[in-house]
Amino acid sequence: MTVSVADQAFATRIAEPGKVLPDVARRIDALDGLRGVAAFCVVFHHMGLPPLGFRRAYLAVDFFFLLSGFVIARAYDHKLNSGLTVTKFMIQRVERLYPMLFVGSVLALAVWPIMQGDPYLAPTHQISWMTILLCQFLLIPFLISRTEYPLNLAQWSILFELIANLLYAIFRPVLNGYVLVAVVMASGCALWVISSQYWNLNFGWGHDNFWRGIPRVSFSFFLGVLLFRTEQIWVPRIIELPFWLIALALLTVLALPVGYQGLLRHFDIFMTCVVLPLIFVFGRVGVGLSGVARTLGLISYPLYILQGPMLRLFGWLGFQHGYYQGTWWVAYPTVVLVGGIVWLAAYLIDEPLNRLRRRSRATA
């Protein structure tokens, strides 16, 4: 029996995590852009942006996990294979993620006085300032409030991403071949069971659904790793589509209405296991609008981390003046204002720190 070149590539690629593709150092503009689109959808979701509301935009987090698994494997498979220790790997990950987390935490603490009575917070007398500072800056979940991070809700997914990063680094030597496939399939089955019971995948963010977030991050993150390990097989078979069309598909998925009857009952699991991976696959070879995609990618992480405290502040200011942020003539200017502030944070803080971090590692 003749073995095709693609089959040989699959056997080699999935059996040898750490083999470097020729373009491994090159950023993939379309994927960066899709990350930015997903981050804006999260903002639209939290604002209830009219007319659609983007009620399904919590699935953007699953897309983030998928992108993260692919990007982490692409950047670190060969480094870990060449001697990078788990400790140094995690230090690098914290160095990358923490600066914006710190800025977000400072913003969150700054708006704390206007958040009294928020249903996501426990009564203030149960939370000392020392507890707030420790939990907020050390990524320790609040266990006495409805959410794990009531001051900046987005932090829950960063905690899960760091946990996935740690598990990837520790078990990377055995996460090849059928083991990696088994992890993805087992996580997918767990997601199916949970979604059948709860009808959606919007969990992991609260103290009462924390553990249900484990299969959520495990499936998408390690599917991303698997897609990287096998990309020599599927990339040549994917049709190149324009970036704007792929971005529109992602926007459509995240803007679809929430429902619990009929087919919509299993909408989330179908989107997470089938549609979002397909959007990612086409994004891997997407073309066009590179400048726009790069800009969206640059602001995606700061936008995701900083939007929570900013929206709370702007929402409070609007309420004080009788405005409701779900009204289009308030919502759209707010999106522009948030985007502008985040753009400044990305160009003045996040990207300079990234360049400094890269230079320091290159000269070490």
Describe this structure in words.
The protein has 364 residues and is mainly alpha-helical. 67% of the residues lie in helices and 0% in strands. Helix 2 (29-47) runs parallel beside helix 10, helix 4 (86-110) runs parallel beside helix 12 and helix 10 (243-255) runs antiparallel to helix 11. The chain has helices spanning 5-15, 29-47, 60-81, 86-110, 129-138, 155-171, 178-198, 213-229, 231-234, 243-255, 267-284, 290-320, 328-363. The N and C termini lie far apart (50 Å). The chain has one domain (5-363).
Condensed summary:
The chain is an all-alpha fold. Helices cover 67% and strands 0% of the residues. It has one domain (5-363).
The description of the largest β-sheet is:
none
What is the molecular shape?
globular
- Radius of gyration, in angstroms, nearest whole number: 21 Å
Mean pLDDT: 82
The percentage helix is 55-70%
Count of discrete domains? 1
Approximately what portion of the residues adopt beta-strand conformation?
A: under 5%
Distance linking N and C termini? 50 Å
**Low-confidence residue ranges:** 1-22
Structural class: mainly alpha
Number of strands: 0
**Secondary-structure element series:** HHHHHHHHHHHHH
Number of discrete helical segments: 13
Keyphrases for this structure?
about 375 residues, 13 helices, globular
Blueprint of the fold:
Elements: H1 5-15, H2 29-47, H3 60-81, H4 86-110, H5 129-138, H6 155-171, H7 178-198, H8 213-229, H9 231-234, H10 243-255, H11 267-284, H12 290-320, H13 328-363
Helix pairs in contact: 2-3, 2-10, 2-12, 3-6, 3-8, 3-11, 4-6, 4-12, 4-13, 6-8, 7-8, 8-11, 10-11, 12-13
